[in-house]
Amino acid sequence: MDLTLLGTGCPSVDFKRFGPANLISTKKTNLLVDCGSGVTQRLNQLKLSGANIDALLLTHLHSDHVIDLYQLIISSWHSYRVKPWNIFGPPGTKKFVKGIMNVWKNERAQRIAYEARSSAKAFNIKVKEFNSIGNIKINDLKIKYFEVDHKPVKYAYGFNIFHNNKKLTISGDTRPCENIMKFGQNSDVLLHEVFIDGEIKKVNKMRTRQTLHNVRKYHTPSSLVGKVAKLTRCKKLVLTHLVPTRFNENKLKKIVRDDYGKNPIIGKDLLKIKI
């Protein structure tokens, strides 16, 4: 099982760090987790497209995690996808997908009629919404989903992905919470988001002290992510969804290493990790 970080950024635009997205691949399966800004371009850099994706998991419905969903769907049709999409996400995903498909309904109908392609199955979207905790099987991948704490976001999820006795845990967006400690135990890789303390400055009235406090509060700060990793006893800690996208890497490594006991891997777009 391979993990490729397609986007390690956040809502802030950075050409080095695209929006949140991850690819989990085996010889039989390509699983996409989230579809932030630039996901189709990153897939293209791997010589893949939406046509190659077997299923999409959404951690939550924040815009930075789903903004390129329609681009993923329409580009998969242009890349000759001939099967329906299977999308799994939090409650509200059905309504969200229906909404974006309706926005482009007339344009899509015109393209289908005029371009006379042999299949429009790429526009057949099958959506299943998560319960609190549950299991999914996609080809040779077994997935356990579980709720995390990203309040005020009502529904947010992390994932355990299993293949050949290996375990990958994806935190999604969350503050430190009991489910990460519970379901992240003994993971081969813990892919965890991080808010990097001291790296974001106030900007007049647009980014106030209260703004920074609130954003930090529903993420996992760098002062705690190493402690989380140590408590889960994960073999490798990979940091992603880096807020902000530009920071002192050596300083971040030291902060996390002091708590975790070993160096974390600082995620970069297109970094591939074999699990």
List keywords for this structure.
7-stranded mixed sheet, about 280 residues, alpha/beta, globular, Metallo-beta-lactamase, Chain A, 9 helices, single chain
What would your notes on this structure say?
Helix 8 (222-232) packs parallel to helix 9 (249-260). 29% of the residues lie in helices and 26% in strands. The strands form two sheets. A seven-stranded mixed beta sheet has the order 6-5-4-3-2-1-14. It has a single domain (2-274), classed as Metallo-beta-lactamase, Chain A (4-Layer Sandwich), CATH 3.60.15. Helix 6 links the parallel strand 10 (166-170) and strand 11 (189-195). The chain is α/β, with parallel strands linked by helices and 275 residues long.
